[in-house]
Amino acid sequence: MDCPDIQLDIKSDQRDDAVPVLGQRATRQRRLIYDILRSSNEHLDVETLYRKARDIDSRVSLSTVYRTIALLKESHLVDELIFEDDRRCYEFKKTSGHHHVRCQSCGRIVEFETSCEERLRDRLEAQTGFEVESVRIDVAGYCSNCRAR
Amino acid sequence: MDCPDIQLDIKSDQRDDAVPVLGQRATRQRRLIYDILRSSNEHLDVETLYRKARDIDSRVSLSTVYRTIALLKESHLVDELIFEDDRRCYEFKKTSGHHHVRCQSCGRIVEFETSCEERLRDRLEAQTGFEVESVRIDVAGYCSNCRAR
DNA sequence: ATGACTGCAAACTGTTTGCAGTTAA
DNA sequence: TTAACTGCAAACAGTTTGCAGTCAT
Questions:
Q1: Calpha distance A53→A87 (Å, rounded)
Q2: Are B35 and B49 spatial neighbours (Cβ–Cβ below 8 Å)?
Q3: Using alpha carbons only, how large is chain B's radius of gyration in Å?
Q4: Which protein residues have Cβ within 7 A of any strand C atom?
Q5: In chain A, N or C: fewer CB atoms in 10 Å?
Q6: What is the DSSP letter of B76?
């Protein structure tokens, strides 16, 4: 495969739209979990999300966190990321900056997007007959800080 | 990011090198598990691998399968793949065809490789200071068969 | 001979579920 | 009012571990 020249956009963005679908009832717990995910720029795992939620309002259970995440995934409001160390994290869905470079030493994550994605999409659709729904690129390595040490 | 033109190689290949490092002792069980993984062109999950192993020689336990997989991962002889449905599969490490397109309906998997990988590598190293160790591209969609139905 | 392995059963981790009580609509 | 929710504890699946015995070297 030939891919003459690419450029890299390292970005982070945030949408700011209206109240979303939170199941049929917007309960205190669901709003809380939703807000934490929405306002956080990091990837949160279930445990962290749960702790953050309890810090604000102790009337949240772990099961509700799981149930709400499932809901948000179904509604395509959050993305689930599975890292190499098997940690599962969640982040508010972004319109760009989908892809990740992760430092295997310190865990630092840099996001980027690339036109490769569309090209790949087009080529794959043409050559395999697949209708492409999603492209995910995960890069792992060692960041400059960790390399220095 | 700009990525003017790419082409797609859909391939499968097989290495044929000498006896590998299987921990410190090449036991019957380890050789068996190694051989099954090596000779299989599919991605095997733990359960399938275990069943295949028992069909050949019943003196293998599930724990040994887990322990041997861990060993092979450490030695970089097999790759672990986590699919969207959370199934974990293992395959003999390949020198090409690392990437996957997966049909969300029937589970069919097509492998491919792309020069995007190297370009991405170079760009990311230049722009983020990371030393890139691995690039993984996972595509999901619907295959031609399933689209027809 | 001996310490790197193995099988077994028990432990563990992350996630899901049934149920009785609670609460948003 | 009432059915969609919640918290709790118990169940669950996949994986890991301690231990006593086995086997490759």
A1: 19
A2: no
A3: 18
A4: A 25-28, 46, 62-63, 66-67, 70, 88; B 23-25, 27, 29-30, 59-61, 63-64, 67-68
A5: C
A6: T
Amino acid, res. A11: K
pLDDT in tens, B58-99: 999 999 999 999 999 988 889 888 876 778 999 988 766 678
**A 68-107: CB under 8 A from B:** 82, 86, 101, 103-104
How would residue A96 be classed by pLDDT, with cut points 50, 70 and 90? low
Mode of pairing for the β-strands spanning A131-142 and B78-82: unpaired
What is the spatial distance between Cα B28 and Cα B3, in angstroms, rounded to a whole number?
49
Q: Do B101 and A4 touch (CB under 8 A)?
A: no
Percent of chain A residues topping a pLDDT of 70: 83
- Shortest CA to C1' contact from A27: nucleotide: C24
Structure tokens at A34: 């939703």
> Which residues are registered as beta bridge partners of A80?
A90
pLDDT tens profile B31-56: 999 999 999 988 899 999 999 999 99
Q: Which nucleotides of D are covered by protein (CB under 7 A)?
A: 4-9, 14-18, 23-25
Separation of CA B69 from chain center: 12
